[in-house]
Amino acid sequence: MRLRVVLPAMLALLAFLAYLVPTSGLMAVMRLTGPIETHVATIGTYASIGLGVIIVLFVLTWGLLYLKLIRPLEELTREAQMLANTPQDRDIQLRAGHLLDRLPVAVGALQKRLSSARAETSDAVAAATRRADEQRTRLEAILLDLTEGVIVANFEHRILLYNEAAQRILELRDALGLGRPLFELLTEEPIQHVLEQLMRGIDPSAQSDAAESEEGKAERHAKEQGSGQRTRHFVCATVDLGTLLDARMSLVRDAAGRASGYVLTFADVGPQLDNLARRDAILREVMIDWRRPLANLTAAAEMMATGAELSENERRSFEEIVFKEVENLNARFREASKSYDVLAAGPWPMSDILSLDMFRAIKKHLADAGIEVTLVGVPVWLHADSHSLMRALEHLIRHVAAGGTRAFDIEAEPGERYAYIEIAWDGEPVSSAELDRWLAEPLVGTVANRTAAQIVERHGSELWSSRKDGGGKAFLRLPLKPTTRPQAAKPATRLAPRPEYYDFDLFATTDAAMNDKPLKRIDFVVFDTETTGLKPSEGDEMISVGAVRVVNGRILTGETFERLINPGRPIPPNSIRFHGITDEMVKDKPPARIVLPQFKSFVSDACLVAYNAAFDMKFLELKREEAGVGFDNPVLDALLLTIYLHKDAPDHSLSAMANRLGIEIMGRHTALGDAMMTAALWVRLLDLLEDSGVKTFGQAIQISTRMMQERRLASKF
C-alpha cells in the first residue's frame, strides 16, 4: 500500500485509541460516585472536548508528516526514476526542511555510480563494436580477394557464411543463402565422410570438458597435427552434377577446443584442367610439331657441311631453307614462351571420390546421346583423377554403343586389393585389338588430349573385356588402387539395437502366382525408416524414410527415395544420438500423411524388403488412415532369412551381418544409408538362398514363417 494511505490509517487508529481509553476511564470513575445518568451531561462535554482535541492533533500531525516526510519521499522517488531513465550530471533536488536526513545524498551517489558504469559499459561496447567491425571488414576483404569458394557451416549443415567466389563457382544463387541447407548445393556423402574423418581425430574429452588444461590442449593439438586430421582434401559435386569441385575441409573450434562447425574451401576443376591442357599442348607442339623444321635444318646443315660439289644456286637454296626454318622456330618459340608464362603450373592430384557422384555425371552426359546408363551396386570410394577417368569411361561406352547397344549397367565393387569399375551390356565382349584401338584415341577435354590408354596407365591399371559367367552379358572391367581414406572407425559406445518384431500377417499373400515366382525375377524396394523411438504403438513417429530399388538382382543406385518427415513432436535426445536428426532439421518438412503417398508411388507394386521388417511396417500401418494409403505389397524380412542362412552367427544385427558378408559399412543410421546396406546384403542373400534351395517367393515365405516361430518360441525361454 502507498505511504499516504498507511500513515493516515495508523494515525486514525491511534486517535481512536486515544479517545476511547480516557472516555472509558472517566465513565468508570463516575460510576463510583453515583448513578451514571446523573453524569451524562458532564461525560458528553468532556467527550466532545476530547474528540475535538484529538482531531486537531491528528490534522496537525498528518500535515507535518506529509510536508516533512511523505512529500519529500515522493519527490525523491520521482527524481531517482527520472535520473535512472534519463541520466543527467546533477544532484537530486528536494525542498529544504525534509526529515530524510542523508537518504537523498546516498541515492544521488548511487545514481552517479550507475551513470558512470553505464558510460564505461557504453564505451566498452562501442570499442568492441569498432574492433568487430574492423575484423569483419578485414574478413570481408580477404574473402572478396579469394578466388576459391568459402562456405562455413554448422553441424546441422546449415550455411553460416559464404563469399562471392562461392556464388560464382556454384552458380546456384537461389539455393545459396545464410541458414540454408548445405546439401541443397553439394552432394552429401563426400562431405559427411570427410567430416567423420576430421571428428575422429578429436579427443572426445575436448568435446565435453571445457576445463581442459593448457597442457592437454597442446598435447591434443600436437596429436592432431601429427595425424594430419586438421584439413582433409576431397572431391565432391554440386547436386545438379554439373560441376566437380576440388575441396578442402577443416573444423571450426571455440576457445575450449570444441568443434562447432566446419569450413569448406573449393574450386572448380574446369579452369585448372584447361590450364593444364594448354600447357601440355605447348609441350606436345615442342615434342611433335617441331620435328619437321628441326629435321629440315639437320638435313640442310649436313648437305652444306659435305656439299663441296654443290652449285652456287643449290647452296643458296639450302641457306634459304636454314634461314626460313630458323625464323619459323624462333616465332614458334616466342609464341610458346608467351603462352606458357600465363599458365598456372602444377599437376592435377588424385583424390577420393564417391563412385555414385562420378557415375551420375557419366549418366547425365551420355543421356544427351540417347545412351541409357543404369547405376547399380552400393556406392564405393575410389581414389582417382576423377575428371579424366570419367572421360575415359564415357569414351569407351560411346564406342560400344556405336555397335548398336544403347543400355549399359555401371557399378563399382570393392575387393581385397582393388576396387573394380565394371561396365556391362547385353552383347558380345570387345576384342583385344579393338579395345587397344579405342584406348589409343586422344580424348578431347582431358589434359593435353591424353589417350584413354594414358589415363588407364596413370591409374596404374589395365582394362580388359570378357563375358559374364552364365549369361549373355559382356563387360569391361577396370581395377583401381584402393582409396587412401582410413577405414570407418567403430563407434565409441554401442547404441541399443531395435527390438525384434514379429508379425505373421506380413507374409500373407492372396496372389498364388507370386508364390511360384523366382526370387531373382521379383522387383524389390528395400527400405528403412528412422523414428523418434522404438515404440510405434505408444506414440513414436517416423522422421525419415529411405529406399532403393533392386531389379534382377541389381541395386539400381540411381533409383532411390529419401525424405525427412516432421513427426509433430519433439525428437528425444537419445534418438538424436542414434540417427543425428534434430528438431531443427525436420521443422519445415512435410508430415507423414504427405510423404507416405509419395513413397507408395515410388514403391508401386514391388515387393518390400526391410531388415526387421515388422518394425518398419508397423509405422506404415499406423499411418494408413491418416495418409489415405496402405502398403499391402508382398513383404520379405531380410533379418529372418539371414538367421536361416547364418544360424550360428553370434550377432544378427545389420552391421554385423554386413561385415560378415564383406559389405562396406557406410552411412549407418540414416534411412537411405541403412536401406543401401540392406540392399547390398539382400543381393548377397538372393545368391545364398538359391544355393541352399530357396528359389521362389513362396519358399522364402515358408522359411521366414518358420524362423519367426522359432525366434518367438526361443524368446519365451
Give a structural overview.
It is a single chain. The chain is an alpha+beta fold and 717 residues long. The strands form 4 sheets. The chain has a 5-stranded antiparallel beta sheet. A 5-stranded mixed beta sheet has the order 7-9-10-12-11, covered by helices on one side. Strands 15-14-13-16-17 form a 5-stranded mixed beta sheet, with helices on both faces. Helix 2 (40-85) runs parallel beside helix 3, helix 9 (291-305) runs antiparallel to helix 10 (312-341) and helix 21 (638-645) packs across helix 24. The longest helix is centred in the N-terminal third of the chain and has 46 residues, at 40-85.
Write the layout of secondary structure elements.
Elements: H1 3-33, H2 40-85, H3 103-145, E1 149-154, E2 159-162, H4 164-170, H5 188-200, H6 204-208, H7 214-227, E3 231-237, E4 244-253, E5 259-268, H8 269-289, H9 291-305, H10 312-341, E6 351-354, H11 355-367, E7 372-375, E8 381-384, H12 386-401, E9 407-414, E10 419-426, H13 432-439, H14 452-458, E11 464-467, E12 473-480, H15 512-515, E13 524-531, E14 542-551, E15 554-564, H16 573-579, H17 583-586, H18 592-603, E16 607-610, H19 613-622, H20 624-627, E17 635-637, H21 638-645, H22 654-660, H23 671-691, H24 697-714
Parallel strand pairs: 7-9, 13-16, 16-17
Antiparallel strand pairs: 1-2, 1-5, 3-4, 4-5, 6-8, 9-10, 10-12, 11-12, 13-14, 14-15
Helix pairs in contact: 1-2, 2-3, 9-10, 11-12, 21-23, 21-24
